[in-house]
Specification:
The structure is a homodimer of 291-residue chains.
Chain A lengths: L4 H23 L6 H11 L5 H8 L3 H13 L3 E5 L7 E5 L1 H24 L3 H15 L5 E4 L5 H17 L23 E7 L2 E10 L4 E9 L8 H15 L4 E6 L4 H8 L4 E2 L11 E6 L1
Parallel strand pairs in A: 6-7
Antiparallel strand pairs in A: 1-2, 3-4, 4-5, 5-6, 7-9, 8-9
Chain A binds a DNA duplex (30 and 30 nucleotides) through helix 2, helix 3 and helix 4.
DNA sequence: GTGATTACCTGACTTATGTCAGCCATCATG
DNA sequence: CATGATGGCTGACATAAGTCAGGTAATCAC
């Protein structure tokens, strides 16, 4: 029967194949072959170096060269030698090219909007899509150091606070907690890392320092769609590396027994439990680790 | 930022595009163009009539004709006029064609197995994939009348019982419940319907009759991945239509307040609550509906 | 500087894909 | 059995996509 894992995976594959095919087909509507349209889109999305485009679209050097030439003939792009390395070339959209790129973007947005509108439960569908996308794109997750006041960081923190509010019996009010000053989580005092998966922030962690050898780990959060991928462990080891680079020798953190995954993670990754070191109302577990 | 619904949909779309592309690419490994391979696969999956293949793959009549000819030349298929209508033609795999088809199947299975093995939480990934596939394939859901002892029906019933066991405080033991005789759920006494989505059973409902004008609705179940699509309502109206066709005039059912979605569904789709009509230990709500 | 390497381009192909008009055999209808 | 419709095939094209062997200019290693 078709309820075994492989059949289910293949059913998924069939379902999305027809979606993907339909999107490709609607791209044809602008009177340009698909390959050319894809190159235009790659450039629009900021892949300007010819080598980067070739790599991304897995195109033969000769073929890409011709596609670029045809876009150039249409007046949609211009190419110029890379000032760093005059052998390489950089493609940029012209005015007309940017307009054409926006038109393709519009098609994609339109299709997405329609697909979501057809579904009575878009939030559930999107949660499932996030999970699938995070799983399939697992190897391309990057860790970016950002300002904790940036939009993406604030998004993660908002999701984190909302989750604490759901999971703590008492709810969670960030103003009652010792909210770290943002500047304590920026180099050289500290750090703030985002886990990014193809543009979507799916996790974060903060390192709050005071300039001395002692610092605190704060705000470890993984998006529900990215749980089970071993991401928290990777985020923690990444932030520990940043701490070492900042000459921090001792890390502390506090957490709550309502977050058993977190407690378990710290217990089996080299942290030892210590006495309460602050009077924050929420935490009930305290850990320390020497680097 | 990229956390709005459209961006999330498009991120998903990008993620699966590269998966789909990779599968297509691996099909090329058998030294046959993709179009030809697709035709072979369509035939292998039971689409024998030339018109059906053309329709499914959205191919031009002339192009398909040529692809069929090239498969014929390779000795992978034979074509013969349809005995019903000698204008139409039927394609069938030869021995070699069947072997080649299996090789393509093997590639797909292999890729699915590898993708699942890469993931530390395949069950969660598959649940999300089921949800997405059911949502995208929503318009192609069919309702099939089957024997309740068939493999697909038994799968649904098993899932149904397991869910009851999880949701009832007391657990659920099917042997304590008045399990309908399978023959009571087969025409002409009753009926058993499966909701099928591209080969996967995603819901069921039974009509248990005794030959008279009174019958009972049993075993309404929707797979978690297909909830929120309005499927239970469609299954119910479908089974009511079958009941009418069997000259049944009054329907009854029992359910449990641990299944509030079900209770709500019955309340707002024409059922009225009645007194207990059996001594089954599990139900605590009883409904009736005149057809 | 010399020679090797790199990044891209061009020309000359091949193959794949798609389109269209016209053909023939068959079928439905009266 | 004449008529028109249908289903598939063929020939003649056109375009898209992919491959490969040079070629040129810039860069790198020494």
């Amino acid at each position: 029967m078709s309820t075994d894992p492989v059949s289910r995976y293949r059913r998924f594959s069939r379902a999305v194949t027809s979606e993907v095919g339909a999107l490709d087909h609607s791209f044809l509507g602008r009177g340009r072959p698909l390959g050319t349209a894809r190159v235009l889109n790659a450039i629009g999305h900021g892949r300007c170096e010819v080598a980067a485009i070739r790599d991304y679209l897995r195109l033969d050097s000769g073929l890409l060269s011709r596609l670029l030439r045809s876009l150039e003939a249409e007046g949609l792009i211009t190419t110029a030698p890379d000032p760093q390395d005059a052998r390489a070339r950089i493609a940029t959209l012209t005015e007309a090219g940017a307009a054409e790129f926006r038109a393709y973007e519009e098609i994609s947005d339109q299709r997405a909007t329609e697909a979501l509108a057809r579904h009575p439960r878009p939030e559930a569908l999107l949660a499932a899509m996030d999970l699938v996308a995070s799983a399939l794109g697992r190897d391309r997750i990057t860790f970016d150091e950002v300002d904790p006041r940036s939009e993406a960081a604030r998004y993660c923190l908002g999701e984190y606070y909302a989750e604490l509010a759901r999971r703590f019996d008492t709810g969670f009010d960030v103003s009652l907690s010792r909210d770290p000053e943002a500047t304590d989580m920026i180099a050289p005092r500290g750090s703030f890392l985002l886990a990014m998966s193809d543009g979507l922030p799916i996790g974060c962690v903060g390192l709050k320092g005071q300039g001395g050898p002692l610092a605190e780990i704060k705000r470890l959060w993984i998006a529900p769609s990215a749980r089970g991928l071993g991401l928290s462990r990777r985020l923690m080891s990444e932030i520990e590396a940043r701490a070492r680079a900042l000459r921090i020798t001792t890390l502390r953190l506090d957490t709550n027994s309502a977050l058993p995954e977190a407690v378990a993670l710290y217990r089996n990754s080299g942290w030892r439990e210590i006495d309460r070191f602050n009077d924050d109302p929420y935490p009930d577990h305290f850990f320390e680790k020497n680097l």
